[in-house]
Specification:
Blueprint (H helix, E strand, L loop, with lengths): L2 H14 L1 E3 L21 E3 L20 E3 L20 E3 L20 E3 L20 E3 L7 E2 L10 E3 L7 E2 L11 E3 L13 H4 L5 E3 L7 H4 L5 H15 L1
Parallel strand pairs: 1-2, 2-3, 3-4, 4-5, 5-6, 6-8, 7-9, 8-10, 10-11
GO cellular component, one term: cytoplasm
InterPro entries: Leu-rich_rpt (IPR001611), Leu-rich_rpt_typical-subtyp (IPR003591), LRR_dom_sf (IPR032675), LRR_domain-containing (IPR050216)
Keywords: Leucine-rich repeat, Repeat
Length: 238
């Protein structure tokens, strides 16, 4: 892509607060964006070949949405965690194995998409995020869900298509969790904490494609309580 094309994009971005440059084969984050650190509210660089985010990402102090789906990111810089206004972070289809230690400082974050990466566990940093609504960790390599998950504030947690065989009973203590997706994992019925059914806020539990038949779930103690929540929620949105 020529300089003139980039210049045109930058001029538009200066007026709109949105910089979008997708599917252009970019191998690095455009340094020229430095000039717009106080203008930009949205950056979308999806479907490129970016391997690294430079530390300067931490200077976009008004950024609300950062979209980097389908790139080649293997790690995120600590500086990313300075974005105190960031509400939406889309990182689907990268090569991320972990999140920066200070990730819990993204205090405004509401939506986090990390589908199709290489995470091995549910990152504990997510538990510090008080405004988190939706977390998508589907299509990773997660094998178990640790005790720390009980602190998670999310309303929806998507763990479909991982390799999960163990789930901490603490998941039933998540204060706001309404939707839990666990489809296509490696769960035996005995490994699914019954408290999810009998004693949680969860009103939609999706567990198709595991190592048990769905009808067996209906025989578990607490299933009636779960169905009451499920039906009440359905009525509310009908």
């Amino acid at each position: 892509m020529g300089n003139s094309a980039l210049k045109a994009h930058l001029e538009t971005a200066q007026k709109t607060g949105v910089f979008q440059l997708t599917g252009k084969g970019l191998t690095e984050f455009p340094e020229e964006l430095q000039k717009l650190t106080s203008n930009l509210r949205t950056i979308d660089l999806s479907n490129n070949k970016i391997e690294l985010l430079p530390p300067l990402i931490g200077k976009f102090s008004f950024l609300k949405s950062l979209v980097l789906n389908n790139n080649k990111l293997t790690a995120l810089p600590e500086e990313l965690c300075r974005l105190k206004k960031l509400e939406t972070l889309h990182l689907n289809g990268n090569l991320l194995r972990q999140l920066p230690a200070a990730f819990g400082q993204l205090s405004a974050l509401k939506t986090l998409n990390l589908s199709g990466n290489q995470l091995r566990t549910v990152p504990t940093q997510l538990c510090g995020l008080r405004h988190l609504d939706v977390v998508d960790l589907s299509k990773n390599q997660i094998q178990n869900v640790p005790d720390s998950v009980g602190e998670l504030q999310a309303i929806e947690l998507n763990l479909n298509q991982n390799q999960i065989s163990q789930i901490s009973v603490q998941i039933s203590h998540c204060p706001r969790l309404k939707v839990l997706r666990l489809e296509e994992n490696c769960l035996e019925l005995s490994m699914l904490p019954q408290s999810i059914l009998s004693d949680s806020q969860i009103s939609l539990l999706a567990v198709e494609g595991n190592l048990f038949e769905i009808k067996k779930l209906r025989e578990l103690e607490g299933y009636d309580k779960y169905m009451e929540r499920f039906t009440a929620t359905k009525k509310k949105f009908a």
